[in-house]
# Entry
Amino acid sequence: MRPDAVRGHLDGLILAVLEDGPRHGYAIIEALQTRSGGALDLPTGTVYPALRRLERAALLSGTWSTVAGRERRTYTLTRSGRHALAGQRAEWNEFSAVVDAVLRPAAGRPAGGLS
Amino acid sequence: MTVQDPVDQHLAELARALHGPARVRRSMLREARDGLHDAVAAHRTYGLPPREAAVRAVREFGAVREIAPLYQHELVARQSRWAALLLLVAFPGMTFGWDLLWRNGVGWDTSPPPTLVVALARLQDTASFLVAAVAVVLLAVTFLRAAPTRQVAVLAGLTGVTGAVVCGGTGVLMNLVNGPATAAMLVTKPFALPAFMVSALVCALVVRSAVRTLRVAATRVVD
# Structure
């Protein structure tokens, strides 16, 4: 998948992988790659500034803590982050349903349009 | 000649490209280093030799010219937030502090003060209120993910410089116009001199923060 296609959705994807619990930066990158089956191929260096952006917007809280004997910056989803994630999911579902309906070949399209 | 580690080389290049609050910048670079070392370790578990693992981790991280602007954007936002916060604390704080001193007898004994002094005092209060109002808006904007950080930084810097010049300038003018009363106050009221010094220090801090913020806003990241 092209990095440009992912970039607009990166914030939502990061919030989603943090829904299960706190993770540090590289664990977030690994989770993104695992969940996408390796299809997400964006520069890993774009993830760290995105984490800072989400932290600045109070959607994540980031703290330095010791994980497996190493000092790591760990991120946790805040309450605002959970709300933002729910909003992004709803928006995406609506958007993908609309695009899917338009892109679907004419043969598979229900008569009478969308509604 | 020693061959530099690709990770160290990449981080040094990234560090050279970034300008902003030292603590945040250090934390960002440390996190990037951790991430790169994690990536190297992951590639080594798949059997890559150390140098190849490092080269691959750096390639996956992305070129500095692509990544640095994203980091710099956040540094500008953090600098703007600190600058706005300082304005929000400093200007109402100075107004409130002087008001408190005045109510407790640390002031001129002449009453009423000259008309020009009254006008300058009103101007100072209004400027202080306006700076605080602008600071609240700027602070709120820094919480937006898509905040126009450079514009916010420029506004925070200009507001700080203007506020310090107007409030500091009117303060100096008021005391010059009312010179004999100020001199008497400095001699008879022990808290007057420390209060002037604290005000001057706060103005200097505001100007320093504003200049830093304007400088960070003007930073152009490598192409």
Summary: The interface with chain A takes residues 27-28, 30-32, 34-35, 38-39, 42, 60-63, 66-67, 70-71, 73-74, 77-78, 81, 142-145 of chain B (CB under 8 Å).
